[in-house]
Amino acid sequence: MDADSLVRRAWQALEDDLQTLGYELIEIELARQGGSLLLRLFIDNEGSRITLDDCTRATHMLSPLLDSLDFIPERYLLEVSSPGWNRPVRKVEHFQRYIGYPFQVTVATPVEGRSRFKGVLTGVETDIIRLDSGGADVALHLNNIKKARLDR
User: Fold this and answer.
1) Count of domains for the chain
2) Beta partners for 39?
3) 89-93: long-range contacts (C-beta < 8 A, 24 or more apart)?
């Protein structure tokens, strides 16, 4: 299973269970750390900051769930974290919340010959975000966004 498929499967498997604990799944990343696969989840909650206790609580719930689902084909490390200051943004409603903020965006398929964009988020449509990137209006399809982060 490729990385994108693993991330999609993890979203489907974990998002609802995190919501039952009062957390929102913000982003999932896969990376290599040493010889192991690292599954990194960013969580948030309404009205307060994510603490170490929150991350521990989520980890204790997710770890056995992931083990029982057994869709990750190799040893992996699970890391649960707060989204932090330069938080990742993936969902339409999150982009809408941050209109007017600066972003760094990486796309999977180049747009106008570029894969990376920096600019202020000026608008969100059904499946497109708009950035003011150095005075140019850039439209990026949400399905093409590989990674988007606030650039604070």
Assistant:
1) 2
2) 30, 78
3) 89/26, 89/27, 89/148, 89/149, 89/150, 90/26, 90/27, 90/145, 90/148, 92/124, 92/126, 92/127, 92/142
99, 138: one domain: yes
- Would residue 139 count as lying in a domain? yes
Q: What is the pTM of this model?
A: 0.83
Q: Does the pLDDT value for residue 1 go beyond 70?
A: no
- Regarding whether 117 and 58 lie in a shared domain, the answer is no
Residue type, 137: D
**Tokens (6 digits) for 98:** 């941050």
Q: Give residue 101's domain range.
A: 92-150
**pLDDT tens by residue, 107-147:** 999 999 999 999 999 999 989 999 999 899 999 999 999 99
pLDDT tens per residue, range 76-115: 899 999 998 889 999 999 999 999 999 999 999 999 999 9
Question: Once rounded to an integer, what is the mean pLDDT over residues 10-37?
Answer: 90
